[in-house]
Each structure stands twice: as structure tokens, then as C-alpha cells.
Amino acid sequence: MIDKENPSSSVSTGAVRMAAGAARGVVATxxxxxxxxxxxxxxxxxxxxxxxxxxxxxxxxxxxxxxxAVLAVAAHLAYGAAAGVVLxxxxxxxxxxxxxxxxxxLWAVMGLVWLPYLGWGLFGTAxxxxxxxxxxxxxxxxxxxxxxxxxxxxxxxxxxxxxxxxV
Length: 167
Prior knowledge:
Layout: H1 8-42, H2 51-60, H3 65-90, H4 96-117, H5 130-150
């Protein structure tokens, strides 16, 4: 909605929401990555290597470990930031439930596009069917964190009710 007295207000609110989506997307990606790395290190996640690193290697070929690590982290953070911008831009009101649903869509994209690109099959079933479940949990962490953080961004209707004043 455009404020007739200040037409740039809707633009600035939109810019604030996009910046908030990017920043909060990065924070949510860090939380997601922590869960993913714990799963890989403990063996709870039955994946051969972290998916961002596998994507970088598959796309660019073998790289020295420090270069691979930097590129994988940068790509994952950028993807998470972009996904946060998309969610903040698509929905005027972001809730935890909506962000969780969005995270499930991102998980489906990973399972239908990125894992087959790696040769791991749909949802990683060429590695093991357990990949599907093991990759869903970190995506839900992403959605939970993103939803909690974006639910407090300006530019959406308030979810709080003002007390009745009796006037």
C-alpha cells in the first residue's frame, strides 16, 4: 500500500523486508548448517558429504579443500539469503507455520532437482532412502528459525491485538 503523503514509504518498507529476508535467511542457514554438520559428523545423516560441498565439486570439479569449503559455505549462505528474500517478498505476513511450509518446498526442490543433479537420485534414494528424512530435519530448522525471525519484520499487519480502551 502506498502512503499518498510519502510514496517512497512503501518502497522503503519493501526494501527493509527484502534486506530482513536476506539477513534472516543467512541466520536460518547457519542454524540449518549446524544441524546438517552435526548429522554428517555423527553419522546420523547418511550422506556421503555435505550437500553444498557436493554441489560445488560436481559443478566446478575437484578443488583444494580450503577453496571448496569457502565456496560451499558462500553458496549455501547465498542460497539461504535468496530464499529468505523470496519468502519475505511473497508473503506480507510471515508466520512460523508458513515458513515451515516454505522450508518443506525448499526441501522438495532439493530432493527433486539438486540431489538428482548430484547423481544421488530423487531425494537421495540412490544413496539410501534415509537421505530424504535426514535432509528434511535441517530444512525444517531453517523454516523454524526463518519464521521466528521474519514474524517480527516491519511491513506486515500486526498479529497483536490492542486492548480495548472503552472509548
